[in-house]
Amino acid sequence: MSEEPRDDAAAEQDAEAAPDPAPMTLSMPVVDPWARPAEETGRASADAEPNGDSTAIDRDDVRRLEAQLIGGPRTLKRREAAAEAGVSLLSARKLWRAMGFPNLDDDAVFFTEQDREALTTVIELVRDEQLTEEAAISIMRSIGQMTDRMVVWQIEALVEEMVVQRGIPDAQARKALVAALPDLIEPLEKTLVYAWKRQMNSAVQRLALRAEAGLASHDGSMSDDNPLPLARAVGFADLVSYTSLSRQMNEKTLAQMVQRFEHKCAEIISVGGGRLVKTIGDEVLFNAETPEAGAEISLALAKAFTEDDLLPAARVSLVWGRVLSRLGDIYGPTVNLASRLTSLAEPGTVLTDASTAAALRNNEKFVLIPHQPRNVRGFGEIHPVTLARGTGTGLILD
């Protein structure tokens, strides 16, 4: 790791010449859409509420909120931030890009003491060899991408709440939210840290206690040297006729339908001990540690949407196999096959393959109904099997 900031060109030459580049470190700036170059700040008050628009957000409110969020005034340029961290500007820029932030001009005063403290924290992890350069980049990319999506979600949820509860227009709700946020920052931050710790604990439990059970439930054909390291039950749930329905709905009704779908999926998957990997419009991708857990979640999803008066039925698929987990997503033939099976399933049913059916065959909780072989793109001939409820009541939701 370089200990002094250097000119970009020199740093780039060093990076090309060095066989073992030093670990990089990063800063964690907060992107501010209201930020202006120093020479323009004098015009802020004139731009605050053009033509007396009562819905325009007061920039003084924004600046006060910024001071609370990023820990004080911006006092450091990018070269100064790198210098105080003791790293080259090149290294800092690479990691800022990993966080998803745009490049900054040399003269832009962007960083605060809070940024410096966060930067130092990550630097020390790399210097102490608790993280490698690659791990640091990957972890900070995960933080940048996940928190960006989370913040957008939270802002929109709060705005929607104000529109519904107060009966005010969207633009006015956004202005009111800026004024209300200072009182929400601390409780939201505490909840975020709490949730992160609980999620990390759950991940540790899955890693330490459930992985062995998941592998044991397979037929033993998966060797430890498999390039896809994780054995998981992978499933999709896809709303039927979503495209045609969306054309008949206004934006508000469509948003309510998608939100109801996502919330119901998240609840069922959570109760079943699985993980909601991602949502893609009218479709969710989830996984679970064992075939049995995946089967229970799949059946519960199919049942829930069949019985929902406001949502269409769903096609659901489930495949047990190996996956690769990267950047919070999962990849591999197992995921691809589950996606293909979703399009073959009948509305309100769960479709699986012969291998997954074999893993569930001796469990009386499930009924397995084989079908004629089908040719599936990318997989050739497969033997689809409908998964249905056997004994027991399945997942119990509150």
Automatic annotation (TrEMBL):
Domain of life: Bacteria
Every Guanylate cyclase domain range: 233-342
Residues that span the membrane, as ranges: none
Matching Pfam families: Guanylate_cyc (PF00211)
Any one GO BP annotation for this protein: intracellular signal transduction
Spans annotated as Disordered: 1-60
Composition skew (Acidic residues), residue ranges: 1-17
InterPro entries found in the cross-reference section: A/G_cyclase, Nucleotide_cyclase
One Gene Ontology molecular-function label: adenylate cyclase activity
Protein name: Adenylate/guanylate cyclase domain-containing protein
Naturally occurring in which organism (per UniProt): Arthrobacter jiangjiafuii
